[in-house]
């Protein structure tokens, strides 16, 4: 991971770049629409007028990670709901969704289409670490905001060269820290077997976990990776079972998360505490395995579960449920990916409300200057905070355990900034 000095240098470099480009206009684009005189003059207004704003999103609507496609439903429903209630700052939102099939080259093609053909104001959410990494050079060169990408890779907050890109959800290292803290308290001599996706996503969380347990009695005793193109992870799970580890850390995307949970359930001779990472913790991942087979599985979250009755009378949850029924009647409101999309879109709404200039530069700056912003779909105690020395909007999570037919929160929210210090230190 980056050292403290590197993070500070990143903050300084980003601040300098923001200042240098604050009044720059992308070559070949017209100043039009909403940019006011003075501080906003000369900034980019492509995709935004006084009455409209056009946003793009790139999701795997097909392919091995297609379960994540539901996130785009939640985003689209939020924007339709907002449009019927006056829009964002009086602007109606047009949301253009493109499918990359979880293939980085396709993501680049779709990013170009959104920028050059659709003329979007921003590419709000590219989903997945590989796809986001594939397009951020292009989007930053074009000076197009890439806010709140749907991936928790830590690089979105530690990088020094891409000020137009920022994450949203807790980064994978922060999530790993939560699991490490839990095991050091509850199973201080745990022997951990790890299944992980062989890319930046899997390696980020695994590396963060190893660093967080270093020096403790918690040890990683076995590791198995898989490729996103693999048909299954049965062989990897069989190898991990031979380790006799008493904890299984499941770092997977939904398809492989279900496979690993099913393999664990079938192996009656191995009964580890099963921890599944947040991105595969949706009930839609667990349901095919059979709820009776996933009792006691542990994960962590930061937004409200639409299937949890504790939120039945929550005003935001009521608005979400009603909007899902109205605008996406065929979608399942209980699907956590839909709720994730709603929460992310609501977060973008707050950032756009905070723009000092209704421009691409204004959005770029706003997402990096959030001060304990409350988003009603996030758990109590979880807010958005960024600054010149912190490019990670959310770093607080709460543990949950699957009991009966739903996740049950337990313990207290863990602010990893306070528990472990800023990432990179």
Automatic annotation (TrEMBL):
Keywords: Signal. This is ABC transporter substrate-binding protein. Residues 1-22 form the signal peptide. InterPro entries: Leu-bd, Peripla_BP_I. It holds the Pfam family Peripla_BP_6. PANTHER family: BLR6548 PROTEIN. Belongs to the leucine-binding protein family. Residues 52-403 form the Leucine-binding protein domain.
């Amino acid at each position: 991971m980056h050292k403290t000095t590197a993070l500070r240098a990143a903050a300084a470099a980003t601040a300098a770049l923001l200042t240098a480009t604050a009044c720059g206009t992308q070559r070949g684009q017209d100043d039009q629409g909403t940019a006011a005189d003075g501080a906003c003059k000369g900034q980019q207004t492509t995709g935004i007028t006084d009455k409209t704003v056009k946003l793009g999103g790139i999701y795997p609507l097909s392919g091995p990670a297609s379960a994540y496609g539901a996130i785009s439903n939640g985003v689209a429903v939020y924007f339709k709901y907002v449009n019927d209630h006056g829009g964002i700052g009086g602007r109606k939102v047009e949301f253009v969704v493109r499918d990359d099939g979880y293939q980085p080259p396709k993501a680049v093609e779709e990013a170009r289409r959104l920028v050059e053909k659709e003329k979007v104001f921003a590419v709000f959410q590219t989903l997945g670490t590989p796809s986001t990494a594939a397009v951020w050079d292009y989007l930053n060169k074009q000076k197009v905001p890439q806010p709140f990408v749907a991936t928790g890779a830590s690089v979105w907050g530690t990088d020094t060269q891409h000020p137009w890109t920022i994450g949203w959800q807790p980064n994978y290292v922060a999530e790993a820290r939560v699991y490490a803290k839990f095991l050091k308290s509850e199973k201080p001599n745990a022997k951990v077997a790890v299944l992980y996706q062989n890319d930046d996503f899997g390696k980020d969380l695994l590396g963060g976990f190893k660093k967080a347990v270093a020096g403790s009695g918690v040890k990683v005793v076995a590791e198995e990776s898989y490729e996103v193109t693999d048909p299954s992870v049965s062989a990897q799970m069989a190898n991990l079972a031979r380790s006799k580890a008493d904890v299984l850390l499941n770092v997977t995307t939904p398809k492989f998360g279900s496979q690993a949970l099913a393999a664990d359930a079938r192996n009656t001779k191995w009964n580890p505490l099963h921890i599944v990472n947040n991105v595969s913790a949706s009930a839609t991942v667990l349901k095919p395995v059979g709820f009776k087979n996933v009792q006691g599985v542990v994960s962590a979250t930061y937004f409200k579960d639409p299937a949890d009755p504790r939120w039945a009378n929550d005003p935001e949850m009521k608005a979400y449920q009603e909007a899902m029924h109205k605008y996406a009647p065929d979608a399942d409101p209980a699907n956590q990916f839909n709720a994730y999309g709603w929460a992310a879109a609501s977060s973008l709404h707050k950032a756009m409300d905070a723009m000092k200039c209704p421009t691409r530069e204004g959005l770029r700056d706003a997402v990096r200057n959030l001060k304990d912003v409350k988003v009603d779909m996030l758990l109590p105690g979880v807010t958005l905070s960024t600054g010149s020395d912190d490019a990670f909007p959310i770093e607080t999570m709460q543990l949950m355990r699957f009991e009966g037919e739903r996740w049950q929160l337990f313990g207290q929210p863990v602010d990893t900034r306070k528990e472990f210090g800023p990432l990179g230190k």
